[in-house]
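Field reference: sequence -> structure
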Amino acid sequence: MYVAVKGGERAIDAAHEWLADERRGATDVAELSIPQIREQLRLAVNRVMAEGSLYDPDLAALAIKQARGDMIEAIFLIRAYRTTLPRFGVSAPIDTGAMRCDRRISATFKDLPGGQILGPTFDYTHRLLDFALMAEEGAGATPAVAEAAGAARAAGGAEATALPHVAEYLDREGLLQPEPEDNTPPRDLTREPLDFPADRPLKLQALARGDEGFVLSMAYSTQRGYARNHPFVGELRIGRVAVSMDIPELGFAIDLGEITVSECETVNQFTGSKTEPPKFTRGYGLVFGQSERKAISMALVDRALRWEELGEDDVGAPAQDAEFVLSHSDNVQATGFLEHIKLPHYVDFQSELELIRRLRAEAMMASTGPQEAAE
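Structure field:
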């Protein structure tokens, strides 16, 4: 057995060397740098930070490079690294009302204070391959392009005044179901295992860390009728917010820096009763970086999971089942359980093999008799 283990180690070392060679690719092509990945593959970096629960663009870019672009592997690397970091304290809740918005749109109100800010978006592109990008490889942005990009940032992204949330206008008329106040410190899903029943803060954490494709599929299912959840995007905003922390020795909070987040509030099917007038309900999503598809998906699934809290009937939709959604949304856990079956299971399979051979022999004897079965 020891000799077999040593041989296995040599094979694994060789596999690692081969993997590193494959990651590098052809040596006559310039190697990708961490700044290139961070700046030019920013949406991929944002996803790794969001699902890895660690806001660090450089480390996320490193993980993407090391994982050869495998996003789930990169997320796994970031989460593993995160467990080695000390925790110095807990920051105060971020104030998204004070966000410096790069993008801010509403599908419910055309004219709103502060205006619609389109920002950088694929929404109005033609989805045609731009072969001009191939010609630009190796060249920096032209002065004209750089100047246009700077002007766009100045027009939309430099908004420093507080932009009120669209939901506030509905709140003033009492048209939106109020959020219950709960000052209980939320559980930390990065340090405690998920258990049930899960309260809303824990559900939102799980959705923020959940696989974007899975959360998107669950959200899409609600739109197709697998939950009474007709949504409007009340507001989608992307921008920079300050992160602050209370310092007991100082007696006040200080700003630690800024992060970019995407926030979505949906206005959903209204509810009411004999004693309560009808009000719109809401869903909520908040994730690191520019990840608007994830934020919208998260808001739709959040709303679907609130059916019991809002006194609705369980229609048996998958997106309403908290255990199903939250237990299967974590791509790192899913990957670990899925990929473990490719590791050696020789003993398990041999026992199954012996069992099926014995059952087949017994069935043969029962149908043909002992002598014919022996022949």
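Note: The longest strand covers residues 252-271.
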